Amino acid sequence: MSESEKTAEKETEEFPIKKATFIEKLDDFLKDKDVEALLTSLNSDYSTYKYQERAFNQQKYTLKSKLPDIEATLNVVKFLKQSEADSETQVDFEISSGIYVKTKIQKGNAVCLWLGANVMVEYSHDEAIELLSNNLTKSTESLSRVEKNLAFLKDQITTTEVNIARVYNWDVKQRRIKKTLEKK
pTM for this structure? Predict the structure, then answer.
């Protein structure tokens, strides 16, 4: 197996996306093939790539919107852990968007984290920090993986668009040649 084949195999293992192959020599490639069927296949691949691109962009948007919340919650829990020695800590608490109230928090050794689906769980400060740190790490890794998939997918979309244009133009050229030969 050549080095380029190994690289291509590694890329397709890494990404859950079908790799588009560039059609090098159209005359040789299209000799015995039905152009309409090939164009239909290429358009189908193109539609699949665009669908996957929308799905990855949605994942990226979701992950990017969750990261600041996780970071902010982690910072608050770290702050609460640092202020364990104090009997009371004064903080500004956000009631609504842009509306804050000053309040005093009593000394405590636990926090309640909202997990979603109407579930709230009480954790010690250390457990909460560990959980939030793990979530932050996993979300960052997922975002990185989604961005790599998007970059790979954009290459596949470009390759497919170029193949569609080249095959279509080749077909038009062949029809013109055929029409010119029939007139003679």
Answer: 0.76
